[in-house]
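Hi Y.,

Following your request, here is the sequence exactly as I used it, all 159 residues.
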Amino acid sequence: MFSPNVSQPPVRARHFQPQNQLRPLLDAIAQHPWLGSGFGRTVTYRSTDPRVLADHPAGAYTTTAFEWGYLDIALKIGLLGPGVRGVDCALIYGLLKKKPAAEWGKISAGFAFGLLGVAVTKRIFSILNHPWHWLGHGLRRDFQSGSKQPAAPVKRGGN
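Below is the corresponding structure, written out as tokens. Let me know if you'd prefer a different format.
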């Protein structure tokens, strides 16, 4: 009645990826804990994901995007980075506090719509770890397909 995929769901090795990333990620953070290593910093870890093993049989996988959100931030901007962001927020708040009370409704609406936009984007693009990550992921898929250029657009209509 059920296909084998429904009656016996496969064990998904990719669910164990965060645990595989943890030790190498902590070791990389320890190299530059205060100021971070920058947004281009890569870390290599041993993967058990079948998709990765198909391209890298040894299992060694190098990436700049991780599933440990706060540790990812600590790797890139260090432990002082969130403090600098906090100072920035305090400065912005100080500037906004000087605005007349009549403008606070517009400012609040702007922040609310901005937060809603981030929430919707994060929900739709769950892999969105960096603003350009989705673009790089799409381009990598196009160029790894064997062609040197993305696929040509399909012509529609009778012409």
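Residues 104-124 form the longest helix (21 residues).

Thanks again,
Q.
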